[in-house]
Design a protein that fits this description.
Helices cover 42% and strands 15% of the residues. It contains ten helices and ten strands. Strands 6-5-4-3-2-1-10-7 form an eight-stranded parallel sheet.
Length: 272
């Protein structure tokens, strides 16, 4: 399996110097021994869609851009066109995966009743984008996420039942799975045949920590209660040999140190 780290956290807090921060994320990932990186698909605009400039940076640090992340909007036609544009960029920089995520809400209640209409619409759009990706030699994965319509086990099941396994894979996240009330190991075992890409992060067990925004409980690997040994064993037993991408939305120290803690845990505890 390839071990990757997400780079978007460098960019979101330094909006006046995107190119510098993007390169810093690559330097950190390479220095810490990660094999690959991922980022948001809209990094294309930071480089005026110049894939050669991005590819040159990846080559400079000996890294693969494993995945570009497509956020859906309320406009499925626009989302599909964005996928067309991003896919062309992906191919030029050597990226394999396109992660798709439903529209996220920021207001309470965080957990909302299942919206079957919204999930079926996302499934339809994902099938279209997935077919497009497959035709271009790439892989589309859908990422269940807190504060979106596809998050709980019930919602994931409905989404998967209405998407084509040949075109749409799943990108489960150990932390979002845990927040949604699922046992991470059992969830990875259940969905093993559909998993195309993986996000790893830990969760603080204190449910009273910032209850207004539960995602602030996310932690670097080994700093919470997720059974990563069990998750990795479930993946190995299913024959998964793809990417394990570490992500931490809001590092509680600096980006570099958070990435270092997780990389050391993967090496020292998981033996990878």
């Amino acid at each position: 399996m390839k071990i990757a780290y997400t780079g978007w956290t460098w960019l979101v807090n330094h909006k006046d110097n995107y190119k510098y921060e993007f390169e810093q994320s690559l330097w950190a990932a390479a220095d810490l021994g990660y094999d690959a990186v991922e980022n948001f698909a809209f990094i294309t605009k930071y480089y005026d869609n110049d894939a050669n400039e991005v590819k040159a940076l990846l080559d400079k640090y000996g890294l693969e851009m494993a995945n570009l992340y497509l956020h859906f909007s309320e406009n499925p036609e626009e989302d599909y066109q964005n996928a067309v544009n991003y896919l062309d960029f992906m191919k030029k920089i050597g990226a394999t995966y396109m992660n798709m995520q439903a529209v996220m809400w920021n207001d309470e209640p965080h957990n909302r009743p299942t919206d079957e209409k919204a999930i079926l619409a996302y499934a339809e759009l994902s099938n279209k984008i997935g077919k497009l990706c497959a035709e271009q030699g790439c892989i589309a994965c859908f990422h269940p996420h807190a504060n979106t319509a596809v998050y709980t086990e019930e919602q994931i099941d409905l989404f998967l039942a209405n998407t084509d396994p040949a075109y749409v894979k799943l990108c489960p996240d150990t932390a979002h799975t845990t927040l949604a009330g699922m046992d991470a190991v059992k969830a990875f075992e259940k969905y093993a045949s559909r998993i195309g890409y993986v996000h790893l992060k830990d969760v603080d067990p204190d449910v009273n920590f910032d209850p207004k925004w539960p995602m602030n409980r996310f932690r670097a690997l080994g700093m919470g209660t997720v059974d990563f040994r069990g998750v990795v064993n479930a993946l190995k037993n299913a024959g998964y040999d793809g990417v394990l991408c570490v992500e931490l939305d809001k590092p509680h120290v600096c980006n570099y140190r958070s990435a270092q803690i997780s990389r050391e845990y993967i090496h020292n505890v998981l033996g990878m």
